[in-house]
Write a structure and sequence with these properties.
Blueprint (H helix, E strand, L loop, with lengths): L2 H11 L11 E12 L2 E10 L7 E5 L11 H4 L4 H5 L3 E5 L9 H17 L1 H4 L6 E6 L1 H11 L21 E5 L29 H6 L13 E6 L8 H13 L3 E6 L8 H19 L9
Parallel strand pairs: 3-4, 3-5, 5-6, 6-7, 7-8
Antiparallel strand pairs: 1-2, 2-4
């Protein structure tokens, strides 16, 4: 199993320590938000039964741009800190590598945002208060939603595509931000990247889906969480995009974990979780400007 996938599991392991009463959360499994090649793309919904604040947080189910399915009853504890804070959580799956490319994964998760916003009333959420987070490849997809979104295509025949895929807050754990350095023709490519079929691309292709190259002043508030000793996704990824956010005037923060590698454990995981929840509380629990639907 690729290291990036196992690291995502380890990052979430801390959240498993939170006991959960199943009666506290309503689970809506396997909601279909799109189709491709006769297959369905789906997400699970975790809705707090008490004290819901009307804001949504999407979790990108992705490691190595591979999106696995797990019973939502087995994963609900992972989102306990968010559902306890009143957020409705959507665990979004995308078409997986190696069958589908990074570009196709990006297109899938953008479609998921449009679908969720279009159906905001059904899910009892505010379409103007949607946040996204993810770890490793999921962090990359979260940043793509933050930096490369649009207001929708009013001329599309697909009603979902007419809806905005913009989000209002991002949290990205140990996220690749410049895929060019991992491309097959990159001069100093790390050997480990050969283990990821999704990275069998050239630098020109990689540039299209590199969040670092899409930063603009209208990007949403973004929190970056990174390990200073990360050997798979070196910390320069987070530092470089943080510098780009600062130059563009985007509200952002980078929390570096001095002794962490590609993933957090123990006190680092606790601190990261508190930071993630706090970021969404700060940026999603107050009334935000209307977003076009």
């Amino acid at each position: 199993m690729p290291r990036m996938i196992t690291t995502t599991a380890r990052c979430l392991a801390f959240l498993a320590a939170f006991p959960l009463n199943a009666e506290e959360v309503e689970i809506t499994p396997d909601v279909v938000y799109g189709h491709k090649f006769g297959l369905a793309t789906t997400f699970d919904v975790f809705t707090p039964k008490k004290n819901a604040n009307g804001a949504a947080v999407l979790f990108m189910v992705s490691g190595g741009w591979y999106s696995h399915w797990t019973s939502p009853e087995q994963t609900q504890h992972m989102f306990r800190p968010l559902t306890d804070a009143g957020f409705t959580v959507f665990a979004v799956r995308h078409g997986s590598s190696p069958k589908f490319s990074i570009a196709e994964a990006v297109a899938d998760v953008r479609h998921s945002v449009r679908f969720i916003r279009m159906n905001a009333e059904k899910f009892a959420i505010d379409p103007a208060r949607i946040g996204v987070f993810g770890m490793t490849a999921g962090g990359h997809l979260s940043l793509m939603l933050g930096t490369a979104s649009d207001e929708g295509d009013p001329n599309s025949k697909d009603p979902v595509r007419k809806v905005s895929d913009r989000v209002q807050a991002i949290v990205a754990y140990v996220a690749p931000t410049d895929l060019r350095v991992a491309a097959q023709d990159a001069p100093n490519r790390l050997p480990a990247y050969a283990n990821f079929p999704a990275l069998r691309i050239d630098q020109k292709t990689a540039a299209v889906d590199s969040p670092l190259l899409h930063v603009t002043a209208d990007d949403p508030p973004t929190l970056l969480l990174a390990g200073a000793k990360d050997e798979l996704v070196p910390i320069f990824h987070s530092r470089n995009i943080q510098a780009a956010f600062k130059k563009a005037g985007v509200e952002s923060q980078l929390i570096e974990f001095e002794n962490a590698g590609h993933g957090f454990a123990g006190e680092d995981a606790h601190r990261a979780t508190l930071g993630m929840v706090g970021w969404f509380v700060k940026h999603l629990t107050e009334q935000k400007p209307e977003v076009s639907e």
